[in-house]
Amino acid sequence: MPRTTGNYRNSTVAGETVRAFVPATLPPDGPPLRVEGPIDAACARAMAAVGRLEVAASLVPSTEWFLYGFVRKEAVLTSQIEGTEATLRDVLEFEATDRTAHEDDVAEVCNYVEALTYARRELAKPKGLPLSARLLCEAHRRLMRDAGTRRGGDKKPGTIRTSQNWVGGTRPGNARFVPPPADAVPGLLADLDRWIHGRDPLPALVKAGLAHVQFETIHPFLDGNGRIGRLLITLLLEHWGVMRSPILYLSHSFKRHQREYYDRLSAVRTDGDWEGWTRFYLACVDEAAEDGVSVAQRIFALTAKDRGRLMSHTGATVAAIHLLDLLPSNPIVTVPRAAALLGATAPTARKAVEVLEEIGVLHETSGRQRDRVYAYQAYLQALTADERRG
Ligand SMILES: Nc1ncnc2c1ncn2[C@@H]1O[C@H](COP(=O)(O)OP(=O)(O)OP(=O)(O)O)[C@@H](O)[C@H]1O
Ligand SMILES: [Mg+2]
Prior knowledge:
The protein has helices at 37-58, 63-81, 88-97, 103-124, 133-143, 147-151, 185-196, 204-218, 225-239, 251-256, 258-271, 274-311, 318-326, 335-342, 346-358, 377-384, and strands at residues 6-13, 16-23, 332-333, 363-364, 374-375. It is mainly α. It has a three-stranded antiparallel beta sheet. The chain has a two-stranded antiparallel ribbon with strand order 1-2.
């Protein structure tokens, strides 16, 4: 199946001459990628799983419930691939209290959420930016905000690189992969934009995976390429109507199979193995969607049970019922935060929190007498139940 996947150009960096890889434009060619046999079966399986995830998400009163938790899950996991250590709990606690012991890591995760929110908003606006390199640059600006000061070195937020970079290894000479020379990057990104907006008849789900590989191979930024490239998948799936909202947390599977993830990216370049990548990627979509379904079902069962418990509790107040409905998108609260969410006075909110604490929905976690923090523990457990599988 030998394919020409691109060509090598000599490039100089830090006094060393290295062979930089310039990929051929999409789609895979000579021969083309065919969605047939095992790839067709994998695509059908992944699409069915995505369909089940959407159904599961529609079971709850508000899509926001899943959107909130699942977007943050993706944010945490995509950042963990890079080595960020913040947990979902750290992030939710920070959002509720403005406090965290892991400031830098939590900020990175919050930046991802902002980058995603920004990009979705642009795409939804009649005159917003189209899904393009420009949009990804703007998303990158938000993703990398303050990253330079945190990690040392200026990562040039929002800017296409103007120097040679490399992936893996301590210097370009022993790198796993040397992306294209900087002067080739703008043209390659323009080609990718054209292909995204062209009429390639491959299934949209498959195309989003190809776009990711191409983006990683171009590696247009000094840092953050993995996260922006995975964000690109999320945006394309929504843009092309594969999903109605970004509730698939695909990074979970990429993280679980990280070695293979990197190997498959490399094999496209070294062997032209787009088929191998596509099978791997579709299996990850399937796995992530199935995980999402089981988490959604757990959450659905839990919230229904807790609602029943609250209804049969003699001390239940209207505010407590309302607060219970708000908890899935605010699973960690303080009394002032509950008051703001409910649009109620502090005493009303405090009473609602107390009622939910009495029936075992909320648990105080700070151990303090003042500025107390309450978590919907069982909900957080349900949301992260699939993470123990490693
Ligand atoms: N052999 C490879 N060929 C092409 N791309 C690769 C290869 N190995 C890893 N990558 C991609 O490069 C990303 C890392 O690049 P970079 O550090 O710029 O991104 P990042 O978002 O900061 O890190 P992330 O690394 O979050 O994993 C990986 O996540 C992966 O998507
Ligand atoms: Mg990085």
